[in-house]
Amino acid sequence: MEERKGDCWIHIKDQFDNLEKHTQWGIEFVDRYSKFVKERSEIETSYAKQIRNLSKKYQPKKNSREEEENRYSSCRAFVSTLNELNDYAGQHEVISENLTANIVAELARYLQELKSERKSHFHDGRKAQQQIESSWKTLEACKRKFERDCKEAERAQQHFEKMDADINVTKADVEKARQQAQVRHQMASDSKNEYSAYLQKFNQEQNDHYYSVIPNIFQKIQEMEEKRIERVGDCMKTFADVDRQVLPIVGKCLDGMTKAAESIDAKTDSQLVVESFKSGFEPPGDVDFEDYGQAITRTSSETSLSNPRESKEKPGGKSKGKLWPFIKNKNKPPPAPPTSAPPSPSAVPNDSQSPKQHKEPLSHRLNDFMASKPKMHCLRSLRRGVSGSGPEDFSHLPPEQRRKKLQGKIDELNKDIQKEMDQRDALTKMKDVYVKNPAMGDPASVDPRLGELAQSIEKLQYEVQKFEVRGLAPPSAPRPLSPPLGALTEPSCLTQIKAQAPSANPGPLPTSSTPEFDDEFDEEEALPTIGTCKALYPFEGHNEGTISVAEGEHLFVIEEDKGDGWTRVRRNEDEEGYVPSSYVEVFLESNAKGAMTYI
């Protein structure tokens, strides 16, 4: 340091003001670098916040659709990437925290110390400068006094000599002039001695000032400045080290993203799609050839207008035989569906005639695969208050999907049963404690809750049994819609169950307003299909004009309910008839009036 002082600072001992400006610039530079690091820290914080928000925005929501998507490896990889990205954002927060703690806060404290130290050093320098300037002024005053006294002594000597040479001057005046000259010489001699002594003192002070005091002050300022420069360098190194410290964790985050991407298995995802949408249906068989050319081979006599009844009775072509009973007793309505609430509505008496079943066209078969409109049932909502996304037995789904849904429902119910049993066991233990220690509580206070839990467990177990039975039976098999009355204690539940059965009495069957319709009906073109429907309950059509349907059966709608409670449906080309509107669920085509679209 001594060499550096001799090499650098001794040569600028007269540049005190310039050094003061330079050190002030050094403080401003440290402050500017501190602001730079602070802004970088704020950027890191903002970036981390945006990354976290981005990760949160695309995190899967807790709903059935997202849970379904999570089965695929690509979706799981995306979730893993989002989690790794969240950790990546955390490392940027660490960078921000370390920059603030290790650089910004430290430089703020150091700046205060640096300003205080600099102020002290330059205060000492100014004090030494003022002291040497004061000594110089005192020396100048001594010099001027010595010069003045010398001049006065010289004038007094000249006056004495003049008086001594003048014969006209008395001896007393000459003596007086001589004494005055001597006094002036003594004063000049004293001023000379004083000036000489102070000059030696000033020279010593000046030598000490420029070779000791000021160099020592400059030495301290130099050390202060070097420490400042070293401190800035350390902060710049820390600035880089803060980033370097998180690189291993950032690398792990990136490795996690890469691993997640490599875990994607396209074949497995494709297989999951197959498993998800596998219906279990067998492909439809070959379509039989329907020969419409038989009518062309008839002779002209067979097609004569003189034999209209024989022509109508001929079996070839589209037969309207099933439509004839609609007209015979069109003013006599069939019995209405039952208004009571059995597990499934009882059908009206069935007639003995069973219509001949024909091979269904391919389009009819494909329409059987259509999903039905979800209906809300109350059994699941007795306790949970939630309606499903389809019929309670999932009969609207293909067999394979229905089996999976039923199994999922059974697993969910078993979890609920386990929770209820855990609560029951805990309350039973609490009751035992109360029995052994009555001071802790009344055992009877637990009984109501135990009763509620017992009823809840009984209902849940019944539902499990119900879904297990449904899982073994085909969707159209008869099944109870309500548990035994002993299993239900809430009147509202019974009310909800009864409310499910159709209770409307359909009116008489629609009639024709044209008397001649009976004779011309067979020549009329078949009504177009305006939609489809699904039978919610079995109906055994006994009266004329009705058609028997089985629960779960899909049919074609050819005429909407006109407000009389009946809907006209068609099973195939030869079987048409009316069914109670409350017994079927209708799905109109998109181009039909009041149509609803279902996917």
List the defining traits of the structure above.
599 residues, five-stranded antiparallel sheet, single chain, 13 helices, disordered C terminus, rod-shaped, disordered N terminus, 5% strand, lipid-binding, mainly alpha, coiled coil
Q: How many strand units? A: 5
Count of helices? 13
In N-to-C order, the SSE pattern is HHHHHHHHHHHHHEEEEE
Percentage beta strand: under 5%
Cα distance, first to last residue? 88 Å
Q: Class by helix and strand content?
A: mainly alpha
Shape: rod-shaped
- Roughly how much helix do the residues carry, as a percent range? 55-70%
Largest sheet: 5 strands, antiparallel
Q: Which regions have little confidence, pLDDT < 50, spanning 5+ residues?
A: 1-10, 299-389, 472-505, 511-523, 593-599
For the largest beta sheet, what order do the strands appear in spatially?
Answer: 4-3-2-1-5
Domain REM-1: 396-473
GO biological process, one term: signal transduction
Biased composition (Basic residues): 374-383
Biased composition (Polar residues): 298-308
Helices and strands in order:
Elements: H1 2-7, H2 16-57, H3 64-69, H4 73-165, H5 171-262, H6 266-277, H7 308-313, H8 325-328, H9 362-367, H10 399-436, H11 447-472, H12 491-498, H13 517-520, E1 531-535, E2 554-559, E3 566-572, E4 575-580, E5 584-588
Antiparallel strand pairs: 1-2, 1-5, 2-3, 3-4
Helix pairs in contact: 2-4, 2-5, 4-5, 10-11
